[in-house]
Design goal:
heterodimer, A: mainly alpha, MetI-like fold, B: MetI-like fold
Chain lengths: 282, 286
C-alpha cells in the first residue's frame, strides 16, 4: 500500500519537476529584466535596477521592431482566423469530393520544416519578380500561410467534439438557420476560435526562420533579438519577454476562472441548455 | 449522427476555397519554385538572372559540401526528440492520470512559457549554461565535467536547447492519447497480477502509441530544421543544416545550392516520416 502511494505520487512529483523545468528560463528572463549590466558583451546578472522597465524604448529600433511584430501578428491572426474557421466548418459540416485531400493539404504545412517552407516561399517570390519587394507584405503572406493550418485544426477539433443536439433543438423550436447559427452554434464554437486566434498570434509573433528569409530589410522583434544576440543584448529584451509571459498567464487565469464559473452554473451556455432541456421529453 | 452534421452542396466548397487557395498559392506552388530553383544553372545570379539547365549536379555538390551539417541536424534532432519523449511522457502521464482537478491548469501551464519569445528564452539558456554559471560549477564540483570543461558551444548545449524548446509539441499529443486510455484496463492488468512495470509496457504504452508517433514527428521535424539553438548555444562546429540553407540564401546568394539542400532535407524527412508511420502501424495522424 505504501509502495503504491509512493508510486502514484512519485509520477506526479516527477511531472511537476518537468513542469518546473520549463519555467527555469522564464525565471531568468524576469531576473534579467531587472539587471544593470556592467558590460554589454557579458550576459550575466550584475546589479538590480528598474532602469530597463522605466526606459523600455532606450533602443528605438527595438520598439520599432516590436511594433511591427504586433502589427503583423494582429493582421495575420485576423485573416488566418477567418479563413481557417470557414475551412473548419466546411471540413466538419459539409461533405464534398476532395474532403480528404483537403485535410492532407491542411496537415502538410504543420509537418514541414520551417526552413523548407521559408526557402520555397523565397524561391517563389524571387521567381515571380518580387525579390525587391520583400518586406511587410511578404512576411504577412507567409505568416497567414503557416497560421492557417493551426487555426483549422484547433477549430475543427472543437466543432467535431460538439454534439448537434442543441442545434437540432433550436431548429425544432422554429429557429431559422441563421438564428441557430448565431445563437447556438457560434457561441459554442467561440472558445475554439479564440484559442486558435491566440495560438496564431503567438506563432506569428515568435516566428524567426520563415520571416528572416522573406523579410528583406524589414526587422521584426525576433529578428531584432537575433541581431543583438551577436553583438550584445539590451536588457529591455527581457522586459518584453516578461510582459509577454505575464499577458499569457493573465489569459490562462482568466480562462480557468471562466471555466470554473461555467462548470458551477451550466455546462453549455444558458440558451443552449434551455433549448436542450426543452427538446428532451419528445 | 443526423442529417444535420454533413450537408452536401456547394456551400462547403465556398467555405473551404479561400483557405485552400491560400495554401495552394503559398505552400504548394512554392515547392515547385524551390524544385525549379534547385535545378538552375549555378553560375546565375540575382542580377543576370537564372537559366534552367536541369543541373542535377547541384544536388551532388550540395551533398558533398554539406553532408556534415545535414547528418548533424538529423542526429541532434533525433536525440532531442528522444529526450522530449522521456520528459514529455512523464509530464503527460502525470497530467492525464494524477493531476485530478488541476488537469486543465497544468495543461495550460505546459504551454504558458512558450508564449514568451523563443529567442529570448534561448538566450536565457545561454546564461544558465554559461561557463561560470551554476550548472557548470555544480557539474565540475561532482567531476562530471573537467575543471576547464564547458557546456556552451558543445553539442550538449544545443541538444538541451532543442529539447527544451520543442517539449510542448511532444506533451500535447501524448496527453491527448494518454488521457483517452480507459483506467479499467490498467486496473484489470494489476488484478491479473501484472506488476506496475509490466502493466505499463503491456497496456499503457501500446495504447498511447498514436500520441507517441505524432508527438515524435511534431518534435523531430521542427527540431531537425531549427538552427536558432545551434547558433545561439553552439559554435560553428555544431552548425545545423538550416543555418547553411539560410546563409546560402541570404549571405552567399547561391540560390540553386540553397534550394537543392532544402529539397534534400525535405525528401529525407518525408522518407523518414513514411517509414516511421509504416513501422509504427498507425495512420491516425490526421
Amino acid at each position: 500500500m505504501i509502495g503504491r502511494w509512493l508510486r502514484d505520487h512519485l509520477v506526479l512529483l516527477l511531472g511537476l519537476v518537468v513542469l518546473a523545468y520549463t519555467f527555469i528560463p522564464i525565471a531568468v528572463v524576469v531576473l534579467m529584466s531587472f539587471n544593470a549590466p556592467e558590460s554589454r558583451l557579458v550576459y550575466q546578472f550584475d546589479a538590480f535596477t528598474l532602469h530597463n522597465w522605466l526606459n523600455p524604448c532606450e533602443d528605438p529600433s527595438m520598439c520599432e521592431a516590436l511594433g511591427r511584430s504586433v502589427e503583423i501578428g494582429l493582421a495575420s491572426t485576423l485573416v488566418a482566423t477567418i479563413l481557417g474557421t470557414l475551412a473548419a466548418f466546411a471540413l466538419v459540416r459539409y461533405d464534398f469530393a476532395g474532403r480528404s485531400s483537403s485535410n492532407l493539404l491542411i496537415f502538410l504545412p504543420m509537418a514541414s520544416p520551417e526552413i523548407v517552407m521559408g526557402s520555397s516561399l523565397l524561391a517563389l517570390f524571387v521567381a515571380s519578380g518580387f525579390a525587391g519587394q520583400l518586406g511587410f507584405w511578404t512576411i504577412l503572406v507567409a505568416h497567414i500561410m503557416f497560421c492557417l493550418s493551426f487555426v483549422v485544426v484547433t477549430v475543427r477539433s472543437r466543432l467535431a467534439g460538439l454534439d448537434d443536439d442543441l442545434e437540432q433543438a433550436a431548429m425544432d423550436l422554429y429557429a431559422t438557420p441563421s438564428q441557430t447559427f448565431w445563437r447556438v452554434t457560434f457561441p459554442l464554437v467561440f472558445p475554439g476560435i479564440l484559442g486558435a486566434a491566440l495560438l496564431s498570434f503567438s506563432l506569428s509573433f515568435d516566428d524567426f526562420i520563415i520571416t528572416n528569409l522573406n523579410a528583406g530589410n524589414t526587422t521584426t522583434f525576433p529578428m531584432y533579438v537575433w541581431g543583438v544576440a551577436q553583438r550584445g543584448v539590451p536588457m529591455q529584451v527581457n522586459v518584453v519577454g516578461t510582459v509577454m509571459f505575464l499577458i499569457s498567464i493573465a489569459i490562462v487565469l482568466a480562462g480557468e476562472a471562466r471555466n470554473r464559473q461555467r462548470r458551477r452554473s451550466l455546462t453549455a451556455g444558458p440558451v443552449g441548455a434551455e433549448l436542450a432541456s426543452a427538446r428532451r421529453p419528445s | 449522427m443526423s442529417d444535420f452534421t454533413r450537408r452536401r452542396g456547394a456551400v462547403g466548397y465556398l467555405l473551404l476555397i479561400p483557405a485552400a487557395l491560400w495554401l495552394v498559392l503559398f505552400f504548394v506552388i512554392p515547392f515547385y519554385s524551390l524544385l525549379a530553383t534547385s535545378l538552375y544553372d549555378p553560375s546565375g545570379s540575382d542580377f543576370r538572372g537564372y537559366e534552367m539547365t536541369y543541373e542535377w549536379s547541384n544536388y551532388q555538390h550540395a551533398l558533398q559540401d554539406y553532408w556534415r551539417p545535414l547528418v548533424r541536424s538529423l542526429l541532434y534532432g533525433g536525440v532531442a526528440t528522444l529526450l522530449c519523449l522521456i520528459l514529455g511522457y512523464v509530464l503527460a502521464y502525470a497530467i492525464a492520470f494524477k493531476a485530478g482537478r488541476w488537469k486543465n491548469l497544468m495543461l495550460v501551464l505546459v504551454i504558458a512559457p512558450f508564449f514568451t519569445s523563443f529567442l529570448v528564452r534561448t538566450l536565457s539558456w545561454k546564461l544558465i549554461l554559461a561557463d561560470d554559471g551554476l550548472v557548470v560549477n555544480t557539474l565540475q564540483a561532482v567531476h562530471l565535467l573537467g575543471a576547464d570543461g564547458r557546456l556552451l558551444a558543445t553539442p550538449v548545449a544545443v541538444v538541451a536547447g532543442l529539447t527544451y524548446n520543442f517539449l510542448p509539441f511532444m506533451v500535447l499529443p501524448l496527453f491527448a492519447s494518454i488521457d483517452k486510455i480507459d483506467h479499467r484496463l490498467i486496473e484489470a492488468s494489476s488484478d491479473l497480477y501484472a506488476n506496475p512495470v509490466v502493466g505499463f509496457f503491456k497496456v499503457t504504452w501500446p495504447l498511447s502509441l498514436p500520441g507517441v508517433v505524432s508527438g515524435t514527428l511534431l518534435t523531430f521535424i521542427p527540431a531537425a530544421g531549427d538552427f536558432i539553438n545551434a547558433q545561439l548555444l553552439g559554435s560553428p562546429n555544431q552548425r545545423m543544416v538550416g543555418s547553411v540553407i539560410q546563409s546560402l540564401f541570404t549571405d552567399a546568394n547561391d540560390y540553386p545550392a540553397a534550394a537543392a539542400l532544402s529539397m534534400i532535407l525535405m525528401v529525407i524527412i518525408v522518407v523518414m516520416v513514411f517509414a516511421y508511420i509504416r513501422r509504427a502501424g498507425t495512420e491516425e495522424l490526421l
